Amino acid sequence: MSQDRTAYQEKIIKRYYENREDLMYQKLAELATDLYLAEGKKRQQLWKRAEAALKNLKVEQIKIDRLIAADNPSQLVVLLEKKK
To answer: By C-alpha distance, which of 23, 57, 53 is closest to 35?
Structure first.
C-alpha cells in the first residue's frame, strides 16, 4: 500500500498520526463551543461526535456517559483542561 504513496504523502500521514491527540483536543474544544449554542437534535448529534472524539482519546466510558448525561458543555471544557 505504501508503494502507492509518494514520500511527501507518507510524511503528511506520519505527521497526522503524531499530532492526532492535539487534533482531537482541538476538535473537542470546537464541539464544546458549538454545544453551547445548539439545541434539540443538533445538540444530540454534537454530543455523539464528542463521544467519538473522547473515545479516540481513550477517556473512560463512565466519564463519557456522565458527561453526556449531564448535557453540560462546561463540564466538557473542564475535562479537556484536566487532560491537557
So the answer is: 53
Half-sphere exposure of 58 toward its Cβ, with a 13 Å CA cutoff?
2
pTM attached to this predicted model: 0.80
* Residue 68 domain flag: yes
Q: pLDDT tens-digit profile of 39-81?
A: 999 999 999 999 999 999 999 999 999 999 999 999 999 988 8
Contact 68, 43 (CB under 8 A): no
Inside any domain, residue 5:
no
- The boundaries of the domain holding residue 42 are 21-83
Query: Cell numbers 492535539 label which residue?
Result: 22
Is residue 16 in a domain?
A: no
Query: Does residue 77 belong to any structural domain of this protein?
Result: yes
